[in-house]
Amino acid sequence: MNALPHPVLNVVGVSKSFGAVEVLSDISFQVGKGETVCVLGPSGSGKSTLLRCINWLEKPDAGHVYLNGEPVGVTSAGVVMNDRRLSQIRTRIGMVFQHFALWPHLTVLQNLIEAPLQVQRRPRAEIHEEALALLAKVGLHDKRDAFPARLSGGQKQRVGIARALAMRPDLLLFDEPTSALDPELVGEVLVVMRDLAHEGMTMVIVTHEMTFAREAATRVLFLDRGRMVETGTPDQFFSRPATERARQFLQRYAAEAVTAQR
Amino acid sequence: MIHDFGIVWDQRGLLMSGLANTALLSVIAAVVSLLLGSALTPAMMSRRRAVAGAARAFVDAMRCIPFLLFAYIVYYGLPSLGINFDNWSAGLAALMLYNTAYMAEILRGAWAAMPREPIEAGTAFGFSGVRLFRRIVLPGLVLSAGPVVGNQLIQIIKDSAFLTIIALPELTHAASSIQSRYYVPFAAFITAVALYWGLCLVVEGGVNVLRRLADARR
Protein backbone atom coordinates (compact mmCIF):
# COMPACT_ATOMS: atom_id res chain seq x y z
CA MET A 1 0.00 0.00 0.00
CA ASN A 2 1.34 3.42 -0.92
CA ALA A 3 1.59 6.06 1.78
CA LEU A 4 -0.93 8.82 1.19
CA PRO A 5 0.46 12.37 1.06
CA HIS A 6 -2.04 13.90 3.54
CA PRO A 7 -4.12 11.15 5.15
CA VAL A 8 -7.08 12.18 7.33
CA LEU A 9 -6.32 9.20 9.54
CA ASN A 10 -2.95 7.60 10.04
CA VAL A 11 -2.73 4.55 12.31
CA VAL A 12 0.82 3.45 13.01
CA GLY A 13 1.69 0.18 14.72
CA VAL A 14 -1.24 0.05 17.14
CA SER A 15 -1.27 -2.89 19.54
CA LYS A 16 -3.64 -3.67 22.38
CA SER A 17 -3.97 -6.49 24.89
CA PHE A 18 -6.68 -7.23 27.44
CA GLY A 19 -4.77 -9.05 30.16
CA ALA A 20 -2.81 -11.83 28.49
CA VAL A 21 -4.94 -11.76 25.34
CA GLU A 22 -3.48 -9.78 22.48
CA VAL A 23 -6.46 -8.21 20.70
CA LEU A 24 -4.58 -6.03 18.22
CA SER A 25 -1.10 -6.64 16.95
CA ASP A 26 0.87 -3.92 15.19
CA ILE A 27 -1.94 -2.51 13.02
CA SER A 28 -1.04 0.24 10.54
CA PHE A 29 -3.19 1.84 7.87
CA GLN A 30 -4.12 5.22 6.44
CA VAL A 31 -7.40 6.72 5.33
CA GLY A 32 -7.42 9.48 2.74
CA LYS A 33 -9.95 12.27 2.47
CA GLY A 34 -13.31 11.04 1.14
CA GLU A 35 -12.44 7.37 1.52
CA THR A 36 -14.87 4.77 2.84
CA VAL A 37 -12.83 2.06 4.50
CA CYS A 38 -14.66 -1.07 5.64
CA VAL A 39 -13.05 -3.18 8.35
CA LEU A 40 -14.09 -6.81 7.96
CA GLY A 41 -13.27 -9.96 9.87
CA PRO A 42 -14.73 -12.70 12.02
CA SER A 43 -16.18 -11.94 15.47
CA GLY A 44 -13.44 -11.41 18.02
CA SER A 45 -10.89 -10.40 15.40
CA GLY A 46 -10.37 -7.01 17.08
CA LYS A 47 -12.33 -4.83 14.63
CA SER A 48 -14.28 -2.92 17.26
CA THR A 49 -11.25 -2.53 19.49
CA LEU A 50 -9.32 -1.09 16.55
CA LEU A 51 -12.10 1.44 15.94
CA ARG A 52 -12.17 2.37 19.64
CA CYS A 53 -8.40 2.86 19.65
CA ILE A 54 -8.76 5.50 16.93
CA ASN A 55 -10.57 7.95 19.24
CA TRP A 56 -8.90 6.54 22.35
CA LEU A 57 -12.05 5.11 23.93
CA GLU A 58 -9.58 2.27 24.28
CA LYS A 59 -6.01 3.28 25.08
CA PRO A 60 -3.61 1.51 22.72
CA ASP A 61 -0.69 -0.24 24.47
CA ALA A 62 1.64 0.75 21.66
CA GLY A 63 1.54 2.73 18.44
CA HIS A 64 0.22 6.09 17.36
CA VAL A 65 -2.91 7.57 15.84
CA TYR A 66 -2.82 10.80 13.84
CA LEU A 67 -5.82 12.84 12.73
CA ASN A 68 -4.88 15.20 9.90
CA GLY A 69 -1.28 14.86 11.02
CA GLU A 70 -2.02 15.70 14.66
CA PRO A 71 -1.37 13.03 17.29
CA VAL A 72 -4.36 11.61 19.18
CA GLY A 73 -4.01 10.52 22.81
CA VAL A 74 -0.25 10.88 23.20
CA THR A 75 1.77 13.87 22.03
CA SER A 76 4.66 13.40 19.60
CA ALA A 77 6.92 13.54 22.65
CA GLY A 78 5.13 10.45 24.00
CA VAL A 79 3.28 12.25 26.81
CA VAL A 80 -0.32 11.14 27.42
CA MET A 81 -2.67 14.06 26.74
CA ASN A 82 -4.91 15.48 29.44
CA ASP A 83 -8.66 14.89 29.14
CA ARG A 84 -9.28 18.40 27.91
CA ARG A 85 -6.93 18.16 24.95
CA LEU A 86 -8.09 14.65 24.07
CA SER A 87 -11.73 15.77 24.24
CA GLN A 88 -11.02 18.59 21.79
CA ILE A 89 -9.62 16.11 19.29
CA ARG A 90 -12.52 13.72 19.83
CA THR A 91 -14.97 16.42 18.74
CA ARG A 92 -13.48 16.09 15.25
CA ILE A 93 -14.06 12.31 15.14
CA GLY A 94 -17.73 11.36 14.93
CA MET A 95 -18.80 7.96 16.19
CA VAL A 96 -21.83 5.79 15.50
CA PHE A 97 -22.42 2.98 18.00
CA GLN A 98 -23.76 -0.53 17.61
CA HIS A 99 -26.47 0.03 20.22
CA PHE A 100 -27.07 3.67 19.17
CA ALA A 101 -26.03 5.13 22.54
CA LEU A 102 -28.37 8.08 22.16
CA TRP A 103 -28.84 10.21 25.25
CA PRO A 104 -32.20 9.04 26.60
CA HIS A 105 -32.99 12.20 28.58
CA LEU A 106 -32.85 14.40 25.47
CA THR A 107 -35.18 14.65 22.48
CA VAL A 108 -33.96 13.74 19.00
CA LEU A 109 -33.18 17.38 18.17
CA GLN A 110 -31.51 17.96 21.55
CA ASN A 111 -29.35 14.87 20.96
CA LEU A 112 -28.02 16.54 17.80
CA ILE A 113 -27.50 19.92 19.44
CA GLU A 114 -25.99 18.82 22.77
CA ALA A 115 -22.33 18.32 21.86
CA PRO A 116 -21.97 21.12 19.27
CA LEU A 117 -23.46 23.54 21.81
CA GLN A 118 -21.89 22.28 25.05
CA VAL A 119 -18.51 21.08 23.80
CA GLN A 120 -17.80 22.92 20.56
CA ARG A 121 -19.61 26.04 21.78
CA ARG A 122 -20.72 27.07 18.33
CA PRO A 123 -23.56 29.61 17.94
CA ARG A 124 -26.96 28.17 18.85
CA ALA A 125 -28.86 29.44 15.81
CA GLU A 126 -26.37 27.92 13.40
CA ILE A 127 -26.35 24.56 15.21
CA HIS A 128 -30.14 24.50 15.32
CA GLU A 129 -30.47 25.16 11.62
CA GLU A 130 -27.86 22.53 10.72
CA ALA A 131 -29.45 19.96 13.04
CA LEU A 132 -32.85 20.40 11.40
CA ALA A 133 -31.27 20.03 7.96
CA LEU A 134 -29.49 16.84 9.09
CA LEU A 135 -32.72 15.38 10.45
CA ALA A 136 -34.39 16.10 7.12
CA LYS A 137 -31.48 14.41 5.38
CA VAL A 138 -31.90 11.19 7.38
CA GLY A 139 -35.68 11.42 6.98
CA LEU A 140 -36.56 12.12 10.60
CA HIS A 141 -37.54 15.78 10.55
CA ASP A 142 -40.98 14.92 11.95
CA LYS A 143 -39.42 13.04 14.90
CA ARG A 144 -37.35 15.96 16.13
CA ASP A 145 -39.29 16.36 19.40
CA ALA A 146 -39.61 12.64 20.15
CA PHE A 147 -37.49 10.94 22.80
CA PRO A 148 -35.19 8.16 21.54
CA ALA A 149 -37.19 5.53 23.48
CA ARG A 150 -40.13 6.16 21.12
CA LEU A 151 -38.17 5.35 17.95
CA SER A 152 -37.53 2.11 16.09
CA GLY A 153 -33.99 0.75 15.94
CA GLY A 154 -33.50 1.99 12.39
CA GLN A 155 -34.72 5.45 13.33
CA LYS A 156 -32.45 5.50 16.39
CA GLN A 157 -29.44 4.65 14.30
CA ARG A 158 -30.28 7.35 11.75
CA VAL A 159 -30.44 9.81 14.65
CA GLY A 160 -27.08 8.39 15.78
CA ILE A 161 -25.60 9.18 12.37
CA ALA A 162 -27.14 12.67 12.29
CA ARG A 163 -25.81 13.33 15.81
CA ALA A 164 -22.31 12.43 14.68
CA LEU A 165 -22.62 14.61 11.56
CA ALA A 166 -23.80 17.57 13.64
CA MET A 167 -20.24 17.77 15.00
CA ARG A 168 -18.95 18.46 11.45
CA PRO A 169 -16.38 15.70 11.95
CA ASP A 170 -13.29 15.22 9.81
CA LEU A 171 -13.72 11.48 10.23
CA LEU A 172 -16.72 9.29 10.97
CA LEU A 173 -16.36 5.94 12.76
CA PHE A 174 -19.09 3.28 12.56
CA ASP A 175 -19.01 0.39 15.04
CA GLU A 176 -21.22 -2.35 13.54
CA PRO A 177 -24.03 0.17 12.96
CA THR A 178 -26.58 -2.40 11.73
CA SER A 179 -25.74 -5.41 13.92
CA ALA A 180 -28.35 -4.62 16.55
CA LEU A 181 -31.14 -3.99 14.05
CA ASP A 182 -33.97 -6.23 12.91
CA PRO A 183 -33.19 -7.37 9.35
CA GLU A 184 -35.98 -5.30 7.80
CA LEU A 185 -34.56 -2.09 9.36
CA VAL A 186 -30.99 -2.55 8.13
CA GLY A 187 -31.69 -1.12 4.68
CA GLU A 188 -32.81 2.34 5.81
CA VAL A 189 -29.53 2.81 7.72
CA LEU A 190 -27.34 1.53 4.88
CA VAL A 191 -29.05 3.96 2.47
CA VAL A 192 -27.94 6.88 4.64
CA MET A 193 -24.40 5.51 4.88
CA ARG A 194 -24.22 4.94 1.13
CA ASP A 195 -25.27 8.57 0.54
CA LEU A 196 -22.52 9.75 2.88
CA ALA A 197 -19.98 7.64 0.99
CA HIS A 198 -21.06 9.24 -2.29
CA GLU A 199 -20.86 12.70 -0.79
CA GLY A 200 -17.22 12.07 0.08
CA MET A 201 -17.47 11.77 3.87
CA THR A 202 -14.32 10.15 5.26
CA MET A 203 -15.42 7.00 7.06
CA VAL A 204 -14.10 3.89 8.77
CA ILE A 205 -16.85 1.28 9.06
CA VAL A 206 -16.69 -1.95 11.04
CA THR A 207 -19.41 -4.10 9.52
CA HIS A 208 -20.67 -7.57 8.67
CA GLU A 209 -22.68 -6.25 5.71
CA MET A 210 -20.62 -7.74 2.87
CA THR A 211 -22.85 -6.41 0.09
CA PHE A 212 -22.57 -2.90 1.47
CA ALA A 213 -18.78 -3.19 1.82
CA ARG A 214 -18.47 -4.46 -1.73
CA GLU A 215 -20.58 -1.64 -3.18
CA ALA A 216 -19.70 1.35 -1.02
CA ALA A 217 -16.14 0.82 0.23
CA THR A 218 -13.19 2.37 -1.52
CA ARG A 219 -10.97 -0.02 0.43
CA VAL A 220 -11.35 -3.05 2.64
CA LEU A 221 -9.23 -4.08 5.63
CA PHE A 222 -9.45 -7.70 6.68
CA LEU A 223 -8.61 -8.49 10.31
CA ASP A 224 -8.19 -11.92 11.80
CA ARG A 225 -7.07 -12.62 15.37
CA GLY A 226 -5.85 -9.08 15.86
CA ARG A 227 -3.71 -8.96 12.75
CA MET A 228 -4.33 -7.13 9.52
CA VAL A 229 -4.24 -10.04 7.13
CA GLU A 230 -5.24 -8.35 3.92
CA THR A 231 -6.13 -4.96 2.48
CA GLY A 232 -7.24 -3.93 -0.96
CA THR A 233 -10.07 -2.63 -3.10
CA PRO A 234 -13.40 -4.39 -2.56
CA ASP A 235 -13.10 -5.86 -6.03
CA GLN A 236 -9.72 -7.42 -5.25
CA PHE A 237 -10.79 -8.63 -1.83
CA PHE A 238 -14.14 -10.16 -2.76
CA SER A 239 -13.19 -11.57 -6.18
CA ARG A 240 -9.57 -12.52 -5.67
CA PRO A 241 -8.75 -12.72 -1.95
CA ALA A 242 -5.00 -13.17 -1.54
CA THR A 243 -4.97 -15.21 1.64
CA GLU A 244 -6.46 -18.51 2.66
CA ARG A 245 -8.02 -16.99 5.77
CA ALA A 246 -9.87 -14.35 3.75
CA ARG A 247 -11.10 -17.06 1.37
CA GLN A 248 -12.48 -19.11 4.26
CA PHE A 249 -14.12 -16.04 5.76
CA LEU A 250 -15.85 -15.12 2.49
CA GLN A 251 -16.95 -18.70 1.85
CA ARG A 252 -18.61 -18.84 5.22
CA TYR A 253 -20.50 -15.60 4.46
CA ALA A 254 -21.53 -16.81 1.02
CA ALA A 255 -22.86 -20.02 2.56
CA GLU A 256 -24.81 -18.04 5.16
CA ALA A 257 -26.26 -15.76 2.49
CA VAL A 258 -27.50 -18.78 0.52
CA THR A 259 -29.04 -20.30 3.64
CA ALA A 260 -30.72 -17.01 4.44
CA GLN A 261 -32.24 -16.79 0.96
CA ARG A 262 -33.84 -20.25 1.18
CA MET B 1 -66.04 15.17 69.49
CA ILE B 2 -66.64 18.38 67.54
CA HIS B 3 -65.68 20.17 70.70
CA ASP B 4 -62.37 18.20 70.78
CA PHE B 5 -61.51 19.34 67.28
CA GLY B 6 -62.45 22.85 68.35
CA ILE B 7 -59.77 22.66 71.02
CA VAL B 8 -57.24 21.39 68.46
CA TRP B 9 -58.26 24.27 66.14
CA ASP B 10 -57.58 26.74 68.95
CA GLN B 11 -54.09 25.24 69.26
CA ARG B 12 -53.46 25.43 65.52
CA GLY B 13 -50.49 27.75 66.02
CA LEU B 14 -48.67 25.04 67.94
CA LEU B 15 -49.50 22.39 65.32
CA MET B 16 -48.43 24.66 62.46
CA SER B 17 -45.08 25.40 64.06
CA GLY B 18 -44.71 21.64 64.62
CA LEU B 19 -45.52 21.02 60.96
CA ALA B 20 -43.02 23.69 59.89
CA ASN B 21 -40.32 22.11 62.07
CA THR B 22 -41.05 18.65 60.69
CA ALA B 23 -40.84 19.98 57.12
CA LEU B 24 -37.65 21.90 57.92
CA LEU B 25 -35.97 18.91 59.60
CA SER B 26 -36.95 16.56 56.80
CA VAL B 27 -35.89 18.81 53.95
CA ILE B 28 -32.52 19.70 55.53
CA ALA B 29 -31.91 16.04 56.40
CA ALA B 30 -32.88 14.94 52.87
CA VAL B 31 -30.68 17.51 51.11
CA VAL B 32 -27.64 16.92 53.33
CA SER B 33 -27.99 13.13 53.27
CA LEU B 34 -28.35 13.24 49.47
CA LEU B 35 -25.14 15.29 49.22
CA LEU B 36 -23.26 13.09 51.69
CA GLY B 37 -24.71 10.01 50.04
CA SER B 38 -23.53 11.08 46.59
CA ALA B 39 -20.04 11.54 48.06
CA LEU B 40 -20.24 8.08 49.63
CA THR B 41 -21.45 6.41 46.42
CA PRO B 42 -18.11 6.64 44.55
CA ALA B 43 -16.44 5.25 47.69
CA MET B 44 -18.77 2.25 47.64
CA MET B 45 -17.89 1.70 43.99
CA SER B 46 -14.16 2.21 44.56
CA ARG B 47 -11.72 -0.33 43.17
CA ARG B 48 -9.71 -0.09 46.39
CA ARG B 49 -11.10 -2.83 48.56
CA ALA B 50 -10.47 -1.12 51.88
CA VAL B 51 -12.37 2.02 50.78
CA ALA B 52 -15.28 0.08 49.30
CA GLY B 53 -15.38 -2.20 52.35
CA ALA B 54 -15.45 0.66 54.86
CA ALA B 55 -18.19 2.50 52.94
CA ARG B 56 -20.21 -0.70 52.60
CA ALA B 57 -19.81 -1.46 56.32
CA PHE B 58 -21.13 1.99 57.29
CA VAL B 59 -24.10 1.70 54.95
CA ASP B 60 -25.06 -1.80 56.06
CA ALA B 61 -24.63 -0.99 59.75
CA MET B 62 -26.85 2.12 59.49
CA ARG B 63 -29.55 0.36 57.57
CA CYS B 64 -29.79 -2.36 60.20
CA ILE B 65 -30.28 -0.07 63.22
CA PRO B 66 -33.85 0.97 64.12
CA PHE B 67 -33.95 4.76 63.80
CA LEU B 68 -35.44 5.23 67.27
CA LEU B 69 -32.49 3.40 68.81
CA PHE B 70 -30.04 5.42 66.72
CA ALA B 71 -31.63 8.68 67.89
CA TYR B 72 -31.34 7.47 71.51
CA ILE B 73 -27.65 6.69 71.00
CA VAL B 74 -26.89 10.10 69.45
CA TYR B 75 -28.78 12.13 72.05
CA TYR B 76 -28.36 10.10 75.24
CA GLY B 77 -25.42 7.84 74.45
CA LEU B 78 -22.84 10.17 72.93
CA PRO B 79 -22.77 12.62 75.89
CA SER B 80 -21.37 9.78 78.04
CA LEU B 81 -18.45 9.76 75.54
CA GLY B 82 -18.09 13.49 76.11
CA ILE B 83 -19.93 14.56 72.93
CA ASN B 84 -22.82 16.89 73.83
CA PHE B 85 -25.64 18.05 71.56
CA ASP B 86 -28.75 20.11 72.05
CA ASN B 87 -31.88 18.29 70.90
CA TRP B 88 -32.03 20.10 67.52
CA SER B 89 -28.46 19.24 66.55
CA ALA B 90 -28.82 15.68 67.81
CA GLY B 91 -32.08 15.16 65.92
CA LEU B 92 -30.74 16.61 62.69
CA ALA B 93 -27.44 14.73 62.96
CA ALA B 94 -29.26 11.46 63.56
CA LEU B 95 -31.61 11.96 60.60
CA MET B 96 -28.77 13.05 58.30
CA LEU B 97 -26.33 10.26 59.15
CA TYR B 98 -28.98 7.57 59.12
CA ASN B 99 -30.34 8.59 55.71
CA THR B 100 -26.91 9.15 54.17
CA ALA B 101 -26.63 5.36 54.15
CA TYR B 102 -29.95 4.98 52.36
CA MET B 103 -29.20 7.72 49.80
CA ALA B 104 -25.77 6.23 49.04
CA GLU B 105 -27.34 2.82 48.46
CA ILE B 106 -30.10 4.32 46.25
CA LEU B 107 -27.60 6.24 44.11
CA ARG B 108 -25.23 3.29 43.87
CA GLY B 109 -28.02 1.11 42.57
CA ALA B 110 -29.16 3.71 40.03
CA TRP B 111 -25.63 4.35 38.82
CA ALA B 112 -24.82 0.65 38.48
CA ALA B 113 -28.03 0.12 36.50
CA MET B 114 -27.29 2.98 34.09
CA PRO B 115 -26.44 1.83 30.57
CA ARG B 116 -22.73 2.41 29.82
CA GLU B 117 -23.08 3.26 26.14
CA PRO B 118 -24.66 6.73 26.39
CA ILE B 119 -21.94 7.74 28.85
CA GLU B 120 -19.30 6.35 26.50
CA ALA B 121 -20.93 8.28 23.65
CA GLY B 122 -20.54 11.40 25.81
CA THR B 123 -16.82 10.72 26.08
CA ALA B 124 -16.54 10.05 22.34
CA PHE B 125 -18.30 13.36 21.59
CA GLY B 126 -15.83 15.34 23.67
CA PHE B 127 -17.46 15.47 27.11
CA SER B 128 -15.16 14.86 30.06
CA GLY B 129 -14.91 15.38 33.81
CA VAL B 130 -17.50 17.63 35.41
CA ARG B 131 -19.19 18.45 32.11
CA LEU B 132 -19.68 14.74 31.35
CA PHE B 133 -21.18 14.20 34.79
CA ARG B 134 -23.41 17.27 34.71
CA ARG B 135 -24.76 16.96 31.15
CA ILE B 136 -24.83 13.20 30.53
CA VAL B 137 -24.63 11.19 33.79
CA LEU B 138 -26.57 13.35 36.27
CA PRO B 139 -29.81 13.82 34.25
CA GLY B 140 -30.13 10.06 33.88
CA LEU B 141 -29.38 9.55 37.55
CA VAL B 142 -32.00 12.11 38.64
CA LEU B 143 -34.63 10.56 36.39
CA SER B 144 -33.96 6.98 37.45
CA ALA B 145 -33.25 7.60 41.14
CA GLY B 146 -35.66 10.55 41.58
CA PRO B 147 -38.78 8.59 42.53
CA VAL B 148 -36.83 6.42 44.99
CA VAL B 149 -35.22 9.51 46.56
CA GLY B 150 -38.75 10.95 46.87
CA ASN B 151 -39.90 7.82 48.67
CA GLN B 152 -36.93 8.15 51.00
CA LEU B 153 -37.97 11.74 51.76
CA ILE B 154 -41.37 10.37 52.88
CA GLN B 155 -39.50 7.88 55.05
CA ILE B 156 -37.50 10.76 56.57
CA ILE B 157 -40.69 12.71 57.31
CA LYS B 158 -42.12 9.71 59.15
CA ASP B 159 -38.85 8.91 60.97
CA SER B 160 -38.66 12.50 62.18
CA ALA B 161 -41.69 11.72 64.40
CA PHE B 162 -39.39 9.62 66.59
CA LEU B 163 -37.51 12.79 67.49
CA THR B 164 -40.37 13.66 69.81
CA ILE B 165 -38.61 11.42 72.34
CA ILE B 166 -35.76 13.92 72.55
CA ALA B 167 -38.29 16.74 72.99
CA LEU B 168 -37.81 18.23 69.54
CA PRO B 169 -40.87 20.46 68.92
CA GLU B 170 -41.91 18.77 65.68
CA LEU B 171 -45.44 17.80 64.63
CA THR B 172 -45.83 14.62 66.72
CA HIS B 173 -44.49 16.46 69.73
CA ALA B 174 -46.99 19.28 69.18
CA ALA B 175 -49.93 16.87 68.87
CA SER B 176 -48.76 14.95 71.90
CA SER B 177 -48.51 18.06 74.06
CA ILE B 178 -51.98 19.26 72.99
CA GLN B 179 -53.54 15.89 73.89
CA SER B 180 -51.81 15.70 77.27
CA ARG B 181 -52.84 19.24 78.18
CA TYR B 182 -56.53 18.99 77.06
CA TYR B 183 -57.14 15.20 77.00
CA VAL B 184 -58.19 15.15 73.35
CA PRO B 185 -56.04 12.25 72.09
CA PHE B 186 -58.17 11.25 69.10
CA ALA B 187 -58.65 14.75 67.69
CA ALA B 188 -55.03 15.77 68.29
CA PHE B 189 -53.45 12.67 66.76
CA ILE B 190 -55.86 12.42 63.81
CA THR B 191 -55.14 16.04 62.97
CA ALA B 192 -51.39 15.32 63.09
CA VAL B 193 -51.90 12.28 60.84
CA ALA B 194 -53.81 14.45 58.35
CA LEU B 195 -50.98 16.99 58.35
CA TYR B 196 -48.33 14.27 57.78
CA TRP B 197 -50.51 12.98 55.01
CA GLY B 198 -50.70 16.42 53.39
CA LEU B 199 -46.93 16.80 53.60
CA CYS B 200 -46.43 13.43 51.95
CA LEU B 201 -48.90 14.34 49.21
CA VAL B 202 -46.77 17.36 48.34
CA VAL B 203 -43.69 15.13 48.09
CA GLU B 204 -45.67 12.55 46.12
CA GLY B 205 -46.73 15.30 43.68
CA GLY B 206 -43.09 16.20 43.06
CA VAL B 207 -42.19 12.54 42.59
CA ASN B 208 -45.00 12.10 40.07
CA VAL B 209 -43.71 14.99 37.98
CA LEU B 210 -40.28 13.30 37.90
CA ARG B 211 -41.82 9.93 37.13
CA ARG B 212 -43.75 11.34 34.18
CA LEU B 213 -40.57 12.95 32.83
CA ALA B 214 -38.72 9.65 33.21
CA ASP B 215 -41.51 7.56 31.63
CA ALA B 216 -41.52 9.72 28.51
CA ARG B 217 -37.81 8.93 28.15
CA ARG B 218 -37.96 5.20 28.77
Describe this structure in words.
With 262 residues, chain A is α/β, with parallel strands linked by helices. Chain A has a domain at 102-169. Helices cover 39% and strands 23% of the residues of chain A. Chain A has helices at 47-54, 83-90, 108-118, 124-137, 153-165, 183-199, 210-216, 234-239, 244-261, and strands spanning 9-18, 21-31, 36-40, 62-67, 70-72, 93-96, 171-175, 203-206, 219-224, 227-232. In chain A, the strands form two sheets. A six-stranded mixed β-sheet of chain A has the order 6-7-8-3-9-10, with helices on both faces. A four-stranded antiparallel β-sheet of chain A has the order 2-1-4-5. In chain A, helix 3 packs across helix 4 and helix 4 (124-137) crosses helix 5 (153-165). The longest helix of chain A is centred in the C-terminal third of the chain and has 18 residues, at 244-261. Chain A is globular, with a radius of gyration of 18 Å. The mean pLDDT of chain A is 94. With 218 residues, chain B is mostly helical. Chain B has one domain (2-216): MetI-like (MetI-like fold). In chain B, 82% of the residues lie in helices and 0% in strands. Chain B is flat and about 70 Å long. The model of chain B has no long low-confidence stretch (mean pLDDT 91). Classes of the chains: A alpha/beta (262), B mainly alpha (218). Chain A binds chain B through residues 55, 57, 83-84, 86-88, 90-91, 93, 95, 97, 99-105, 114-115, 118-120, 147-149, 163, 167, and chain B through 117-118, 120-129, 131, 135-136, 139-140, 143, 216-218.
